[in-house]
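Same chain as my last thread, 263 residues:
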Amino acid sequence: MQQAEDFGAESAALADMLETLAPDDWRRPTRFKGWTPDDVLVHLHFWNRAQDLALTDPDRLRSEIAAVGAAMAEGRGRAHENAAVRERGRDLLAAWRAYAADMAERWRAVDPKRRLPWVGPDMSARSAMTARQMETWAHGQAIYDLMGLERAEHDRIRNIVFLGVGAFAWSFHVQGLPKPAAEPCLRLTAPSGALWEYGAPRDDERIVGPAVDFARVVTQTRNVADTALDVTGPTATLWMRTAQCFAGPRERPPAPGERLREA
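reply #2:
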């Protein structure tokens, strides 16, 4: 399964960057809700292990989901994750890196169409790995920004773009809005320079620009105003202002200038 290999590559790339952090950097707040690199990695490690249970121990996963769901309902979601993942700093980095690498290797052999339990409806193994890559990439962006670093992007980001395109209807639903009758067309330039096109060609509703910027908007790591996307039409404009490619309750996209790379 290519998506498992891409998740492994995304995790390894982030891990290599995290190796450069000084001890004090792990406790510095990022521009993502004030989360520190420790907070980010706790979250990624917790949900990697949860996703892995869908494959190895579905009954335990259901129990874990019930527990974390109850904690989140009481406003203790992060506290629950922090209690479940005890490592911090470089110890956390080592534990997360080793687990993600092992997980990616094992999931490569899984049938991409295999249905697995998750929070809400079951999902395919392919979707599960795409979601893990997306989370790794999106949350990692906050740490790159904190450190003032520009990430070297790769065409494996296409998985995240595909996820964002597929979440068009969800982006409106989670906002309490009706799904528009027609979707905008997309003409996105990949990191390699390849052109990725989605939707029927049209001039009145379209989004043109870097695929990385589209992925940043649908994962809410950037406001569309802080990207090089050329957005035309009321549906495309509203989508890019409110896009959300991940599950869960409605999240507020960042305001212009709120989440940028620090100098």
